[in-house]
Q: What sequence folds into this?
């Protein structure tokens, strides 16, 4: 049971890592990239310290579990406040939406 619970966490951390790296590289999400990478750092350390055959460090596991949880709260608060709003860029020429609005 614990192994299957950790499987989804590994996939989540891999996905958030990729999104964080892409956000920093593309400079698309202004500030979210650093937060996402910090979240993944906390998540990876939390994940690795829980696996008994890699490292068994209970205090580090608890501390990074708390940091990982609080980082999700920080992301939620940041999104609710609307900080780091993404500029919407369109590649359409002006007036091209008229094609879709015709009856």
A:
């Amino acid at each position: 049971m614990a192994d299957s619970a950790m499987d989804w966490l590994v996939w989540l951390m891999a996905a958030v890592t990729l999104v964080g790296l892409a956000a920093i590289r593309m400079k698309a999400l202004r500030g979210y990239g650093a937060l996402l990478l910090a979240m993944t750092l906390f998540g990876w350390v939390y994940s690795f310290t829980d696996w008994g055959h890699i490292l068994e460090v209970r205090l580090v596991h608890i501390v990074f579990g708390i940091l990982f949880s609080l980082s999700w709260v920080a992301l939620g608060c940041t999104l609710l406040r609307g900080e780091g709003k993404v500029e919407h860029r369109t590649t359409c020429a002006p007036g091209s939406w008229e094609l879709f609005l015709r009856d």
User: Anything to note?
Assistant: Confidence is low (pLDDT under 50) at residues 99-103. The helical segments are 2-26, 32-50, 58-81, 98-101. The CA atoms of residues 90 and 96 lie 11 Å apart. The chain has one domain: 2-81.
